[in-house]
């Protein structure tokens, strides 16, 4: 173990120039590969609930009242004051059609996206429903549940999915190649040290371990970068960025953490396997058989 | 005087039972410097790798520093390499981007370090006549200095036995003489036993005994 850290430090000191370029290429390939996976695998269904800007949509506002289209601003204002006076209403939030279209509020598929809405918090939902029945200017009232809605605009065609899959596979292979050649180049640049180590009675595992650690770390860095990107997109989910529309809009979302966990694991596995395959060079250096180099 | 190298009836066969070495026997006394001459490149290669324990011979005994290399476990073989026997292979590759001093320090640290490491390095650099070039990169040197650096790397761990594998081929007569002088000096000052696996020297050198070995007549050359 002592030698592993000593060798790790010594090999790490050799990273620079083209080796650094290969490491950067490896990290970038892992990021692209994982982002493509996100596009393929992120759920095209989103929770039917307020997706962002929670400070404007506090908890408990689950009754959605559609405002009749064509009402003037003053009429909507009167309607708001009228609803405000109802006994069952605790709070009302006015949601513009633009906000609905931007995805700040996801309305059920049967409701139009070009309408304005009131989002109401109530202490007694049945009483509220009764009171709203007699309310003019409110054609539809519904209750937001945990059910989900498929966003048809984001669904991918089969051909696009296949294309993404192929490109994703190529990127994974590229990442594998870059990490393998990165650790392989580190090994080549360390040939003299290897010869010293070999004839010093040090096990080849002590040499392989730091190389595998460096490769795994490279894969991990790539996946970490993609996860950071994922969380940033999720944070900006109301910004209109394409991929971010499928994200939960909260950093405390369990699915997001599951995806992040899988991404990190995938990056680590690619880095581990690629660097492990490059350590065959150590075995070749460590073994000799009669008949080898016979003409030498 | 005890024997530090004992090779008895050593046979090595290649693929399809090709004879590489057959019934090779010789000894080296402790504190002695000797040369095993008269083998082909392939035979030297095979013998060297048997001595390092990388391959097992088909038959025969190989005892280095009182250890039977043929029956040595991996752990004990590593212990032998760390403490008792040093090997200087043919066409030894020196570390790139390291000075002679850094390379020597790397070897000592690989072995777990020693107290007063700088004093040890100074001592070895003086012994191997590398003073003045020890702060220059290992790759930036002539053949003799390269071999001296290889020898320094081999003796810095203070082994009992040094086995050099045909390191004379790339040297001219003067360089060869300088190298052999150096080995003789180390042998004399440190009492290090040295086995030189090299073909005939360009000029004979009295301080090195040429080993009379028994080798089966069927050995290929």
Structure, described:
The complex is a heterodimer of chains A (296) and B (221). In chain A, the strands form two sheets. In chain A, strands 3-4-2-5 form a four-stranded antiparallel β-sheet. Chain A has a two-stranded antiparallel sheet with strand order 1-6. With 296 residues, chain A is an alpha+beta fold. Mean pLDDT of chain A is 79; it is low at 45-56, 146-153 and 292-296. Chain A folds into two domains: 2-44 and 153-286, no CATH class; 61-150, Alpha-Beta Plaits (2-Layer Sandwich), CATH 3.30.70. Chain A contains ten helices and six strands, in the order ααββαβαβαββααααα. Chain A has helices at 2-12, 18-41, 73-84, 97-102, 125-133, 158-188, 191-198, 205-235, 254-278, 280-286; strands at residues 45-47, 61-66, 89-95, 117-122, 140-143, 148-150. In chain A, 55% of the residues lie in helices and 10% in strands. Chain B is of the alpha/beta class. Chain B has a single domain, classed as P-loop containing nucleotide triphosphate hydrolases (Rossmann fold, 3-Layer(aba) Sandwich). In chain B, 34% of the residues lie in helices and 23% in strands. Chain B is built from six helices and nine strands; from the N terminus they run βββαββαβαααβαββ. In chain B, strands 6-7-8-3-9 form a five-stranded parallel β-sheet, with helices on both faces. In chain B, strands 2-1-4-5 form a four-stranded antiparallel β-sheet, with helices on one face. In chain B, a hairpin with a 5-residue loop joins strand 1 (3-13) and strand 2. The longest helix of chain B has 18 residues, at 173-190. The two termini of chain B are 33 Å apart. Chain A binds chain B through residues 2-3, 6, 10, 14, 189-197, 199-203, 286-294, 296, and chain B through 12-15, 18, 20, 41-42, 45-46, 49, 52, 54-55, 74, 77-82, 86-89, 92-98, 103, 106-107, 109-112, 138, 153-154, 157.
């Amino acid at each position: 173990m002592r030698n592993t850290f000593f060798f790790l430090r010594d090999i790490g000191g050799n990273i620079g120039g083209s080796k650094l370029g290969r490491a950067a290429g490896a990290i970038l390939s892992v990021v692209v590969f994982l982002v493509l996976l996100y596009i393929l695998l992120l759920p095209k269904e989103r929770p039917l609930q307020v997706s962002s800007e929670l400070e404007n949509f506090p908890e408990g506002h689950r009754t959605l009242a559609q405002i009749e289209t064509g009402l003037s601003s003053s009429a909507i204002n009167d309607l708001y004051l009228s609803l405000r006076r109802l006994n069952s209403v605790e709070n009302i939030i006015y949601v513009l059609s633009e906000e609905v279209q931007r995805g700040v509020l996801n309305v059920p598929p049967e409701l139009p996206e070009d309408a304005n809405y009131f989002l109401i918090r109530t202490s007694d939902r049945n009483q509220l429903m009764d009171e709203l029945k007699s309310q003019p200017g409110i054609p539809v009232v519904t209750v937001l549940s945990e059910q989900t809605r498929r966003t048809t605009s984001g669904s991918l065609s089969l051909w696009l999915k296949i294309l993404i899959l192929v490109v994703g596979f190529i990127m994974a292979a590229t990442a594998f190649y870059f990490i393998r050649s990165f650790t392989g180049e580190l090994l080549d640049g360390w040939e003299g040290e290897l010869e010293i180590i070999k004839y010093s009675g040090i096990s080849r595992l002590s040499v392989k371990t730091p190389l595998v650690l460096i490769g795994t770390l490279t894969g991990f860095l790539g996946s970490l970068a993609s996860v950071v990107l994922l969380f940033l997109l999720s944070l900006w989910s109301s910004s209109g960025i394409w991929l971010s529309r499928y994200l939960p809009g909260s950093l405390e979302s369990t699915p997001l953490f599951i995806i992040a966990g899988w991404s990190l694991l995938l990056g680590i596995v690619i880095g581990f396997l690629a660097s492990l395959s490059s350590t065959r060079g150590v075995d070749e250096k460590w073994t000799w058989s009669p008949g080898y180099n016979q003409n030498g | 005087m005890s024997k530090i190298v004992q090779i008895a009836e050593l046979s090595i066969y290649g693929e399809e039972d090709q004879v590489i070495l057959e019934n090779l026997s010789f000894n080296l006394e402790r504190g002695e410097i000797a040369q095993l001459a008269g083998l082909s490149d392939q035979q030297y290669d095979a013998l060297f790798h048997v001595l390092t324990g990388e391959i097992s011979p088909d038959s025969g005994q190989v005892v280095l520093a009182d250890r039977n290399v043929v029956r040595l476990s991996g752990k004990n073989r590593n212990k032998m390499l760390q403490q008792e026997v040093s090997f200087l292979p043919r066409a030894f590759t020196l570390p790139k981007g390291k000075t002679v001093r850094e390379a020597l320090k790397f070897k000592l640290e690989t072995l777990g370090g020693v107290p007063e490491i700088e004093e040890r390095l100074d001592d070895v650099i003086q012994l191997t006549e590398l003073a003045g070039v020890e702060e220059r990169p290992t790759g930036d040197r002539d053949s003799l200095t390269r071999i001296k650096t290889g020898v320094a790397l081999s003796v810095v761990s203070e082994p009992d036995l040094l086995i050099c594998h045909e390191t004379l081929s790339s040297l001219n007569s003067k360089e060869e003489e300088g190298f052999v002088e150096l080995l003789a000096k180390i042998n004399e000052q440190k009492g290090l036993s040295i086995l030189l696996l090299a073909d005939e020297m360009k000029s004979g050198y009295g301080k090195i005994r040429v080993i009379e070995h028994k080798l089966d007549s069927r050995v290929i050359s």
